[in-house]
Amino acid sequence: MSKNAALSYLPRASVVHRLTGTTKLAFFLLWSTAAMLTYDTRLLAAMTVGGLVLFSVSKIRLSEVKGALLFMMLLVVLNLTAIYLFAPDQGTEIYGTKTVWVHLFWRYDITAETMFYLLNFFMKYSAVIPVALLFILATNPSEFAASLAGIGVSYKVGYAVALALRYIPDVQRDFHNISQAQQARGINLSGKDKVLTRLKNSAAILLPLVLASLSRIETVSNAMELRGFGKHKKRSWYMQRPFQNIDWIAMGLGLVVLLISLGLLVVHQSRFFNPFV
Asked: Dihedral of the CA atoms 166, 170, 171, 175 (nearest 10)?
């Protein structure tokens, strides 16, 4: 079973892992908000470098998340392609000038302004993705539930999210086991068959997977009900930890990045940094 086929908690002895779940959640929200607010290339580039540094500090190897990273990059490329196909002059409308590099056909030109806009759009993703992956990979699901409770979210919602995160590796394992069992029975799931044939054969995996999932859900719900889950309005958390200096530093860093993003909005009187004027 591929270890990077699904996103799940990866314990490491790193500074990032020592942060509390509440800190990591607050930092992720501050960081992603700052990236969403601005199209300033300089800030986005600095945030991208910062995110990569944090990923390196976490001691999580890229090979462990290669599958998820490639899937995210594919979605980003598809998004950028769709933007250009439906709005090839988006950059010109934003920056107010038009510098044609190459004329393709009809209304499709490769302009400096549109390429610059797409670059900024790509950098917004590249600034957020490393931090988002870190938040998922470096946060214990139980600690994440405690962090949600720490910002005022109902513990029932937090517990549901924690169970969902814990369930990802179980689904992955069940899918692998069922796939191997069905292939041992002669059902071909390799890439050699036609797409329609593979989709038809995949049904032999999906049905047992759904049934196994429903069985596990029933077992968990019965266990929670027998333990009186949901009886009280509040609950304590075993994984909840007190704040330390490093937590305040991390949240302060996230707040500084957000304030810089807001400050650039005031300076430029716009979300966009315009080098074409």
From this structure: 160
* Bridge partners for 272 per DSSP: 39
Distance CA 140, CA 151 (A): 17
Whole-angstrom distance, CA of residue 170 vs CA of residue 214: 13
Q: How far apart are CA 97 and CA 261, in angstroms?
A: 25
Single-letter residue type at 52: L
Q: How does DSSP classify residue 63?
A: G
Residues whose CB is less than 8 angstroms from the CB of residue 167 and which lie 6 or more positions away in sequence, other chains included = 216
DSSP code at position 62: G
Q: What is the DSSP string of 191-232?
A: TTS-HHHHHHHHHHHHHHHHHHHHHHHHHHHHHHHHTTTTSS
Global confidence as pTM: 0.77
Residues 6+ apart with CB under 8 A from 89: 98, 107, 109, 111, 114
Q: What is the mean pLDDT of the chain?
A: 84
Q: CA-CA distance, 126 to 249, in Å (whole number)? A: 23
The DSSP code sequence of 21-48 is HHHHHHHHHHHHHHHHH-B-HHHHHHHH
Q: What residues does 103 pair with on adjacent strands?
A: 109
**Residue whose C-alpha is closest to residue 169's, from 13, 60, 9:** 9
Residues 69-112 pLDDT 10s: 888 899 999 999 999 999 898 889 999 889 899 988 888 889 99
Report the pLDDT value the prediction gives residue 3, as an integer from 0 to 100.
46
3-state secondary structure of 186: coil
Please state the separation of Cα 226 from the chain's center in Å: 34
8 Å CB contact between 6 and 172: yes
